[in-house]
Amino acid sequence: MGRDKGDKKSYELKTPKGTKDWDGKDMVIRDQIFSKITEVFKRHGAVTIDTPVFELKEILAGKYGEDSKLIYDLADQGGELCSLRYDLTVPFARWLAMNSSIQSIKRYHIAKVYRRDQPAMTKGRMREFYQCDFDIAGVYDPMLPDAEIIRITCEIFEALEWSGRYTIKINHRKILDGLFEVCGVPTEKLRPISSAVDKLDKSPWSEVRREMTEEKGLDPEVADRIGEYVVLSGGKDLLERSQKDEKLSARGLLERLQKDEKLSANASAKAGLDDMDLLFTYLETFEVLDRISFDLSLARGLDYYTGVIYEVITEGSRPQTSEEEDRSNDPSVGVGSVAAGGRYDGLVSMFSGKKDNLPCVGISFGVDRIFSITKQRRAADTSAAPIRLNEVDVFVMAFGSGLLTQRMQVAKRLWDAGIKAEFSWKAKPKLPQQFKAAEVNGVPWSVILGEDELAKGQCKIKQNGLSEDHPEKNGVLVEMKDLEAELFKRLGRKELGSLPESGVLLDGAKNGMNGLSLEEAAREAPKTG
Amino acid sequence: MGRDKGDKKSYELKTPKGTKDWDGKDMVIRDQIFSKITEVFKRHGAVTIDTPVFELKEILAGKYGEDSKLIYDLADQGGELCSLRYDLTVPFARWLAMNSSIQSIKRYHIAKVYRRDQPAMTKGRMREFYQCDFDIAGVYDPMLPDAEIIRITCEIFEALEWSGRYTIKINHRKILDGLFEVCGVPTEKLRPISSAVDKLDKSPWSEVRREMTEEKGLDPEVADRIGEYVVLSGGKDLLERSQKDEKLSARGLLERLQKDEKLSANASAKAGLDDMDLLFTYLETFEVLDRISFDLSLARGLDYYTGVIYEVITEGSRPQTSEEEDRSNDPSVGVGSVAAGGRYDGLVSMFSGKKDNLPCVGISFGVDRIFSITKQRRAADTSAAPIRLNEVDVFVMAFGSGLLTQRMQVAKRLWDAGIKAEFSWKAKPKLPQQFKAAEVNGVPWSVILGEDELAKGQCKIKQNGLSEDHPEKNGVLVEMKDLEAELFKRLGRKELGSLPESGVLLDGAKNGMNGLSLEEAAREAPKTG
């Protein structure tokens, strides 16, 4: 908190309510998550688009029901009325409607969205937070894009090293609708009853039944019939549910429902079950069926879903230690879920006004929640390597008289070779200060210059952090002319990725003016298996 | 443009004025630019921070002079009053003031900023646009961070392949102030006269002189004395200026000014000249002095600069073909410049209220303008490889009866191996359609499945786009079990980067269930030099 002195107005030095700065290790962890997720999307041929942070107010109007009150509006400063985007789905649908020549796309979008939560909220829910959406638009054969989205979801959580710690709960809107019809739910009560069912992940059936009958006026017999279905689930079971009396596989539950004569006779339920049958076949081919739980209590809040729906849950879905990350009222991510989505075949035509729908299926990853779980797990993992703030490979230092020009010349050679390098911005820094600077940032290697060594055309390369009794603790003498090659050898042994991917060398390096060129050095360096 | 039919309100389907969607090849080019710039920043040990898109209104107040009217405000919906960020410098200074434990940092930030330009503007200036800022905060020995910023700037434009096509104009606020004092400019006229000088890059001296004397009431003799100095420049000269009567090097001009007895006797000018002397020495060591032009007419608009100032210009700085990218009134980027910045030692204390300044030096890259120049040049370069929308390496296809399951199994194997792969989401696609899909996206390789080949445990790998008479035009038969290794061989020969950097494999691949594991395949593949 800072207050201006003197004649200036005083004010509090802070970010706006519900927003935060990302910096330090949090920023590094977040970037690693984004980069792993992006890598999976690209592996499946996705492209990204970027839409403005605000949309015309009327584009967002009527899309979020009663949550519309949470939309941030821009001030009316003349001209168009605009609002900050509330999610990434509506801008995507708007973009598709505007670009009608695009009949198919796989797009991802990682960006901030804005929700003006009630000022009374004490939970610290963020008002600016990241979403990471992947959607497939286009007319394809049934369930193929849907299956690939499930596969992509699995690849992402494997990439995040959550293997065995997540379950994809899956259901189908048409099965739910058919099931409610079969049980005798009046048409006008379909949505309220569906939303009551959606609470089964946090409330027992008895409580949900009470809501249906007492609050929503459902015939108790109808409620009991629903109860026979919605407690059913089959497949991977991460979070135990007390109501479950038998353990089915996802395929087992599907077969049981397919044998249910009342359900099979209902057109909607039949269509949903056929979809699920095909989907399960594809998921078996993709070897990810064992990661899903077919769960009849999954209903999802948003109205626009028309087919398969899913939510990803994890054992760490509800971290009680970090209140900030709670999104329990966030409609895009279900309670306790880290990703959620489904098929929405009618949304684009709401914008285009065309009768022909552009079918879509997608998923939204709750990256803020994924971040906080990842951070917790990393903190608990004592064997994990410490997180480095920057990626510097080499700290260039000198003992004695400072050797500023020489340190700068060496840093320049390393930058030319694509090696990440720093040196102290002091003319005559003390050696311990330089070691300290390297140590603080976890820089793995030092190049140490000394007048005597330089006179012989040599310098030292030292691996930082070696134990006192290590034979190379004081570094290894190398010829100055071989410096890049010697470093490539060491960096190559430790890690790939220290070579720049693109040709970003300065002229000096291209002309081979300074020791080895990158190409020569790369040839010199041993390959890693 | 779409209008809803029926009872819904009709509205125009568009993005808000001054904003745009980024998609297709533009998005790919932009991402490549961001990634090259980021790579250079990381090579120099920079970290990134991310601040909210809006700040408290009072944080921005009083920072932008008369341009404050361009700030976007959020509507008053109760609670704090907020505004969209206008640049990335003020949020950085606010962050530094809030985090007073941070005494030094090199940070970059690539993000959108918002300026509500006059609705009367017909130039199509964007209201939402990207800035890419790099700043160094901390107390260091003189000119060392400043020199590294110039070096970083050169590395970035080299990475963007602008070699030989850019010039860094450089000057020093203290030299300018001293020069004006020596010439006899009254203190109260320092800023107006400085801003008149700043126009010398688009107006002749006669016009600037007229403004000084007629509009700003400067004594004509004083103006003439200024005129003797500010037409001087030395060093790399990209854009010819008619007033220049002799060709000096940057060092040559510096020496001439150092010999100027009146200037040297002025404390401010002397301090600036000493700084420049040291800076030039460092730039020589970094081998980038030949890319700068010491230009006494460079003044920069923003008041907060206290030391060295610079602007990067290019032969394509003023593209007349694309009106959208014009930023001629953008104070963060000088007229015709693609990057600009300088030293600002007093800004952080405006927020912290502390007497001790945290000195800063930084540069802001006009990435929208860099984008439009890059795009123009790429379009003009007929030898350049076409821009691919996605990065898919392999399209998995089949002839005959569709072979959907087999195509899915192969795609899964490739994903497990980190190979970017797609297949048609049709159960029985026609072969020409599959080739077409691969061709449209420029996918370099196809894996072609056929029943006869599969029965023998084989499939074909085909390089797409081979000429009719190429011996491998119809593909090469390989053993199914060797598929990943065969593809690694071919992809490795063509490009690095198809191997995932992180361990993102599914269990199947880890267990070696499907042909070779990634590690085995990588060992099999020949290394590229």
From TrEMBL, chains A, B:
InterPro entries with a match to the protein in the record: aa-tRNA-synth_II, aa-tRNA-synth_II/BPL/LPL, Anticodon-bd, Anticodon-bd_dom_sf, His-tRNA-ligase, HisRS-like_core, HisRS/HisZ, HisRS_anticodon
Signal peptide: none
GO molecular function: ATP binding; histidine-tRNA ligase activity; sequence-specific mRNA binding
Residues the record lists as binding L-histidine: D87, L88, T89, R115, Q131, D135, R300, Y304, Y305
Family annotation (Gene3D superfamilies): Anticodon-binding domain, Bira Bifunctional Protein, Domain 2
UniProt-annotated location(s): Cytoplasm
Catalytic activity, reaction form: tRNA(His) + L-histidine + ATP = L-histidyl-tRNA(His) + AMP + diphosphate + H(+)
EC number(s) reported in the record: 6.1.1.21
A GO cellular component entry from the record: mitochondrion
Enzymatic class: ligase
Record keywords: Aminoacyl-tRNA synthetase, ATP-binding, Cytoplasm, Ligase, Nucleotide-binding, Protein biosynthesis
PROSITE patterns: AA_TRNA_LIGASE_II
Domain Aminoacyl-transfer RNA synthetases class-II family profile: 1-319
Domain of life: Eukaryota
Annotated stretches, region: Disordered: 316-335, 510-529
Pfam families: HGTP_anticodon (PF03129), tRNA-synt_His (PF13393)
Positions with biased composition (Basic and acidic residues): 520-529
Chief site of localization: cytoplasm
GO biological process, one term: histidyl-tRNA aminoacylation
Role this protein plays: Catalyzes the aminoacylation of histidyl-tRNA in both the cytoplasm and the mitochondrion.
Family as reported in the entry's similarity comment: Belongs to the class-II aminoacyl-tRNA synthetase family.
Listed name of the protein: Histidine--tRNA ligase, mitochondrial
